[in-house]
Amino acid sequence: MKPFFALSLCLLCVITSSAQNVSAALQKAVQKLESDPQMQQAMLSVYVADAATGKAVFTHNSSVGMAPASTQKLITSATAYALLGRDFRYRTQFALIKNGAANTLAIQPSGDPTLGSWRWKSTAEAAVVQRIATAVRNSGAGQLANIMVYHKGWNEEAIPGGWTWEDMGNYYGAGAYGLNWRENQYDVLLQSGNAVGDAVQVAGTVPKLYDFSLQSQVRSAAKGTGDRTLIYLPVMSREGVIRGTIPVGEQQFKVSGAMPNPMHQFTETLSEALRNTAQLPAEPALVLEEGLPAGNVLHEELSPSLDSIIYWFNQKSINLYGEALLKTIALQKGKKASTEDAVTVVKDFWKAQSIPQTELNIADGSGLSPANRVTTRAQVAVLLFAKKQAWYPGFFASLPVYNGMKMKSGTIGGVKGFAGYHTAKSGTTYAFSILINNYNGAASGIVQKMYAVLNELK
Q: What is the DSSP string of 96-158?
């Protein structure tokens, strides 16, 4: 036993010495970053833990609430896995309510953010519409009197509090409704002039938008300047404006926007498909704050599994998915599908996992709101919790790779962050979070300086 004890003691000393070396290296790298000119008015927070033991390896301002930007998606992802389950699927039901010759197609939405998405073959716009139209035709309903969307449980306010007007009209600022369609996104095609300063015209949209117009105040700029546009759109409005610049000489320059009314877009798209089967509804669709009445459920659209949804949520940082998942968590817990109720559920869950609610001052599920305040210590606690769960492989697989490390990035105005895992050459796996608020200068510059800190974990 004595040789074994001696060997164990030796290994413990090596591990302890390695942790001390990493801690010292991180301290030196953090001091260098904080002395950088880009950090003159900024706040830096860092927390690194041994993912196997949970023991802190390095901390710096780790109890300070910071705007996390999209690194907050890790919290939403882990909460969704824990409370919904990795096999969870959204179910959107279509029922036929018969009333003599006046039959109604009734829709019970589920908040599914993947309905009509191009990311899966099964959810593609054309495939979904064809399946529904076929089910209606096979039902023998004849011409429909109307389409009704039963919206019970879903808050009318699709946009979380704190989002900025500059974000809300653009694709990444799409709100989460009870009925989402095509990720609530459309593309506007712009045609620029041949000289700098020329007016830019709207050449069309993909898909065709119903009862909505977009006024262009965009101007032509020099070649190579790229997309410098923003779409401004009041929620549920029928008119928006796009401002900024695109390069000269463009015939179909694509800019992506947020649909002003995805429920209307979906029902009009479906009505057009039903027109081809002589089953066109006689009246425009109605949205009712009621639950689906008793009727013959003739079709159900199933979303991909949560595992698959969270993969794209984190890989492509889709804000809509975060807001939809957040509201779904609340609904599944018997509350209203509102951001406010959902935040309470999330904070209560993590409180039960020993994360103080004061360290999770969240305002949305995606991190787009600048009002969010989360500590790096809390983010790492979530990462450590996730690593112990059966669903961890899917969670880990959803993380993008930056700087050779599996981690989620986050970016909003003046905010940059990274959080995730990395296994060092020594074999130690670390869970980490690094957030900077209010840096100055180019984001590309601060990113490389943050990488220099994280490289000490390699």
A: EE--TT-EEEEEE----TTTB-SSSTTTBHHHHHHHHHHHHHHTT--SEEEEEEE-TTB-S--
